[in-house]
Amino acid sequence: MSRHPATLRALFEHASFDQDRLKRLLLRKAARPAQSMRRGASEVAQVLHEPVFSALHGALDIRLADVMARGWLSLSELRDAAQLSATGHAYAAPLGRHKLRSEHAPRLDIRLGEELIDRIAAQISLEFTIETMQLIISDGALVALRQGDYSVVGALRVEGEPIAALSDSRFVLEDRAELTRPLKIPH
Predict the structure, then answer these.
(1) In terms of residue numbers, what domain contains 163?
(2) Spatial CB neighbours of 16, under 8 Å, sequence gap ≥ 6
(3) Radius of gyration of the CA atoms of the chain, in A
(4) Are 88 and 139 in contact (CB under 8 A)?
(5) Could you tell me if 187 and 153 are in contact, meaning their C-beta atoms sit under 8 angstroms apart?
(6) pLDDT in 10s for each residue of the chain, 187 residues
(7) Quick one: angle between helices 41-59 and 19-29, nearest 10?
(8) Cα torsion 63, 68, 74, 80: sign
């Protein structure tokens, strides 16, 4: 079992990436900018590969605790904990086995100077199976995750094509993972 990754980017480092598929996709996407630049599509695709790959990685620089936290906001256990924490004391809400699903759709713009030439759509889908987890609630908001273990399967698609896949990777959160900012728990 691996340690809890801090970001989606770190999570996808456990995935298998299909670089060749990404290069073929960029070759198709490069046709339009190639016409604007009066260059061949393969030349433009080579120029685009590193910036697009870097931009994809940048789009994955989201704290994993934030991704997971949004899935818990509707749980009745959290609403009860939010009321208990309204007195100014932090409260740990223990959760047993359950599943969370998370979908994200970042888009990357391809620009030639200021002109938008094309857009690349990515899709991230994740399914977490939480074995145990403690959620830290303070002043009616979810502020951190603490001590838990979980597994996750998922995929990163670009323009509908699979680029990376996670297959039942198991992780343990040994200490505490803070959220970027507190998430108010709806009543």
Answers:
(1) 2-184
(2) 164, 165
(3) 20
(4) yes
(5) no
(6) 789 899 998 998 888 888 888 777 777 766 665 555 555 656 666 666 677 777 777 888 899 999 998 888 777 778 888 888 877 788 888 888 999 999 999 888 877 678 787 788 999 999 999 999 999 999 989 999 999 999 999 999 998 999 999 998 899 999 999 999 999 988 7
(7) 120
(8) negative
